[in-house]
Design a protein that fits this description.
Bound molecules: zinc ion
CATH class of one domain: Mainly Beta
Radius of gyration: 17 Å
Helix content: 25-40%
Order of helices and strands: EEHEEHHHEEH
CATH superfamily of one domain: Nucleic acid-binding proteins
CATH topology of one domain: OB fold (Dihydrolipoamide Acetyltransferase, E2P)
Organism: Carya illinoinensis
Oligomer: single chain
Structural class: alpha+beta
CATH architecture of one domain: Beta Barrel
Largest sheet: 5 strands, mixed, barrel
Number of strands: 6
Strand order of the largest sheet: 1-3-4-6-5
Distance between the termini: 43 Å
Strand content: 25-35%
Protein name: Replication factor A C-terminal domain-containing protein
Length: about 160
């Protein structure tokens, strides 16, 4: 990739790092929450008295994926919007699904492996960011199904493993 312009390329998904696929943010302002227990300082302070439930947390996708173009293999970071194309649900839904089915993230990796996408990638604007970011993903296979659809079929709708 040259310069700072986003690049669009055809790629094959090689692997998803399923060990860490999401992070927690404040459900109101979407600031990242530093750890599992914490509530958003900003919103909790503002909303505490009037509406204590307004400052809760939610999960957003953030995962590393390995992709191969025709010339290169690289690892890129995929945030919520692009990751939803892969998973077909919110990070919270997927997280709840993995609680019922501990191997769902591993299975999602297996399901999506080898799928081809048109990906738009951009270099990190923040100098500290290590990875090229996926701006958008567009599945190329006409029968593409997001992981959650295949997982629900795999595990059954009723949740028995
Ligand atoms: Zn907040």
């Amino acid at each position: 990739m040259e310069g700072d312009k986003p690049t669009t390329l055809m790629c094959t998904l090689l692997a998803i790092d399923h060990t860490s696929f999401c992070y927690r943010v404040c459900s109101v302002c979407e600031r990242t929450l530093p750890d599992i227990q914490s509530l958003c300082k900003f919103c909790n302070f503002n909303f505490n008295n009037s509406n204590p439930s307004s400052s809760s947390s939610k999960r957003l996708f953030r995962l590393l994926i390995s992709i191969a173009s025709d010339t290169n293999v690289f690892t890129v970071i995929c945030f919520d919007r692009a990751a939803k194309v892969l998973f077909g649900c919110s990070a919270d839904e997927f997280f709840d699904f993995t609680k019922l089915h501990p191997f769902a993230a591993v299975s999602a990796n297996r399901i999506l492996e080898g799928e081809m996408f048109r990906a738009t990638l951009s270099k990190p604007k923040n100098g500290n960011a290590q990875h090229v970011r996926v701006v958008s993903l567009f599945p190329l296979r006409s029968g593409f199904q997001p992981a959650i659809e295949s997982l629900k079929k795999l595990y059954g709708q009723r949740g028995d493993c």
